Amino acid sequence: MPVGIMADEELKTVEALENENEAAADNVSTEVANASEKIEALTVDDAPAKGDGKKKKNKNKSGKGPNKEQTNPPTIPIAELYPDGNFPEGEITEHGPAEGIDERTAKERFSSEEKRALDRLHQDIYQEIRHAAEAHRQTRKYMRDWIKPGMTMIQICEELESTARRLIGEDGLKAGLAFPTGCSRNHCAAHYTPNTGDTTVLEYDDVVKIDFGTHINGRIIDCAFTLSFNPRYDPLVKGVQEATEAGIKASGVDVRLCDVGAAVQEVMESHEVELDGQVYQVKPIRNLNGHSIGPYRIHAGKTVPIVKGGETTRMEENEFYAIETFGSTGRGQVHDDMDCSHYMKNFDQQFVPLRLQSSKQLLNLINKNFGTLAFCKRWLERAGASRYAMALKDLCDKGVVDAYPPLCDIKGCYTAQFEHTILLRPTCKEIISRGDDY
């Protein structure tokens, strides 16, 4: 039979089939529409409407404020302030423009029904991380006013940690602190917290980085800020904070990690600080980076550089990132120095046979209290460990536990740090740890 020609009987059969298909399609469309209406009625759509671009910071998605007012100093757990389980959102923005991805595509994510449906699938995770973020915000708001020169570093850490534990509602590995409180001073950029017996005092001329984390069910907030009391350091602090904001703005789904680093470096190096008659360019500390965050894993595999170059790997939907930047008046490169205080169980380490009974006991204590979250010597002692030095060294030598010594630039220089945790939702970018302070 020539193409395009049909017998009358065949034509009637085809027409009947087409009519049946159209009727079936109408029924499917009606059922989908009804299901969509039911889903909309049962769920809360917290994605901003098309064209909003940005929502008000820390707005509770239920539209209600806290159930009761927080005390001063803060003592009421965050869960009691928001008993309905709807915790304040962070700042909502569009995803950063990516190479090969036009701005229109990023905007369309806001109103895409498919992306909004994906958002709704992860609401339990979003609420957990927002819970941790609110505990972090309220803790640091209190501590920023409380910390004063003349206090010992142990005094500062203990006050911060006890406050954060109360607010997060510490509950074993379900809720608590995600890593030791960093309070690195001056040329020390990161990973310093005082060990027992450390009598270091915070001075008026110190530049101190306060870096601490909270978590709910392993969903970690990693967020840091810099305090200085002498205004001569303000240009350094301002430069690093603006560089962090540039990194946050550049981040987003499909953005290359190296492009975030380039944005950070450009802004940071545009700042200068004058100290004792000498002008210093603010340098990014090139061997310190931001990073992706996973459940109970503070460094989840992807690195966010703060200088140009680096990986061309792209950011993806529903990834968490710590966008952190460090600036220095020194060389812009750090090395291990001073006594070690930070430790963390190796996330990827398989079973390792241990011969020392003391090592087995210490590992059991670490598993019970910290799992794969970071800890410090003070926390081991708080958990009941004593005379553990040899056992800890044995665990480190065997690769079961990794040591993270303080990271320092050249002596005499000054370093600053700012950091936020962001969530790359399918519809938007949520700066989860954003607060009124920074």
Automatic annotation (TrEMBL):
EC number: 3.4.11.18
GO cellular component, as recorded: cytoplasm
Positions contributing to a divalent metal cation 2 binding: D222, H291, E324, E419
Cofactor(s) named in the record: Co(2+); Zn(2+); Mn(2+); Fe(2+)
GO molecular function: initiator methionyl aminopeptidase activity; metal ion binding; metalloaminopeptidase activity
Family designation: Belongs to the peptidase M24A family. Methionine aminopeptidase eukaryotic type 2 subfamily.
Name recorded for this polypeptide: Methionine aminopeptidase 2
Lineage: Eukaryota, Metazoa, Ecdysozoa, Arthropoda, Hexapoda
